[in-house]
Write a structure and sequence with these properties.
About 45% of the residues are buried. This protein has an eight-stranded mixed sheet with strand order 1-2-6-3-7-12-8-11, sandwiched between helices. It has a three-stranded antiparallel sheet with strand order 4-5-13. By secondary structure, it is of the alpha/beta class. It has a single domain, classed as Zn peptidases (Aminopeptidase, 3-Layer(aba) Sandwich). The protein has eight helices and 13 strands. β4 and β5 form a beta hairpin.
Length: about 270
């Protein structure tokens, strides 16, 4: 019953979010909706992220908390073949236990909304312009200014679901030839093992905003992924079991003491020296 309740909650939030078009350079309406939808939990505040004087993102900051992570999720979506927002119909496929629609990256936002609804406080950066590979600048600004380790929550495209992995999330060690921050990856994987959360280290392929941060600015960070079929369509598909496992991982990470000792700035200085 608890699993069904969580799944229903995520699908309901997806339907709400899908009703708001949010193409690259036109994310403001969706950002404003998210500010209201996530609210301002006690002990947290919203901060506008500005690059060259322009608002480009929103940061939900856990004030006074010693957590060293910020979860990054992007708010823009790709258009259809004519350059218009997709007609996005979110549906639950009970025959194969999946959720379908245009899910990139609404699914990660819905996951974090459930985490916040559960009373768990986590730092969240809602980025823009990810689909044109520009959001890493916003990630760098928050990571540098607050000393937080960025962890993107996004999708990992696959052609078909591997039945032996269909409940798993991804905790990647690298993207192409670029390594994510090894110690943080190790700790994320250890939390998953402790909590019996299935994960893969190399399933699907990805070009995420942390990869661009690493390449462009010699920054660092990590990536958590949801294996997804039919990438960049309005027929994207993820397994509901993987969604539930991602919620469990983020909730477990928020309780893990080892992440309170992380400092992005210290690691970044080590990488650049």
């Amino acid at each position: 019953m608890e699993t069904k309740r969580i799944s229903d909650y995520v699908i309901r939030k997806l339907k709400e979010y899908a009703a708001i078009p949010s193409l690259t350079h036109h994310e403001d309406e969706f950002l404003n909706y998210l500010i209201a939808d996530f609210g301002t939990p006690q002990g947290m505040e919203w901060i506008k992220v500005k690059i060259e004087g322009k608002q480009q993102a929103q940061f939900l900051h856990n004030v006074g908390d010693d957590s060293g992570l910020v979860f990054t999720v992007h708010t823009d979506r790709v258009p259809d073949a004519d350059g218009n927002p997709f007609q996005n119909i979110i549906a639950e496929c009970k025959d194969d236990g999946s959720i379908t629609g245009q899910l990139d990256d609404l699914i990660a936002i819905a996951i974090l909304r459930h985490v916040i609804e559960s009373g768990i406080k986590v730092n969240i950066l809602f980025t823009t312009q990810e689909e044109i590979c520009n959001s890493y600048v916003q990630v760098a600004a928050v990571a540098d200014n607050f000393g937080l380790m960025p962890v993107s929550i996004d999708i990992d495209p696959v052609r078909i679901f591997d039945e032996s992995k269909d409940r798993a999330i991804t905790i990647r060690e690298k993207s192409f030839s670029y390594l994510y921050e090894p110690e943080t990856v190790r700790m994320l994987q250890e939390v998953a093992v402790r909590n019996n959360i299935p994960f893969e280290t190399d399933y699907g392929y990805v070009c995420d905003e942390i990869l661009y941060l690493i390449r462009a600015e010699q920054g660092t960070g990590c990536h958590l992924g949801l294996p997804l079929m039919n990438y960049h369509t309005n027929r994207e598909k993820v397994k509901a079991a993987a969604v539930l496992n991602m919620i469990d991982l983020i909730s477990a990470v928020s309780r893990a003491d080892e992440f309170k000792r992380l400092n992005y700035n210290t690691i970044s200085e080590t990488l650049t020296n």
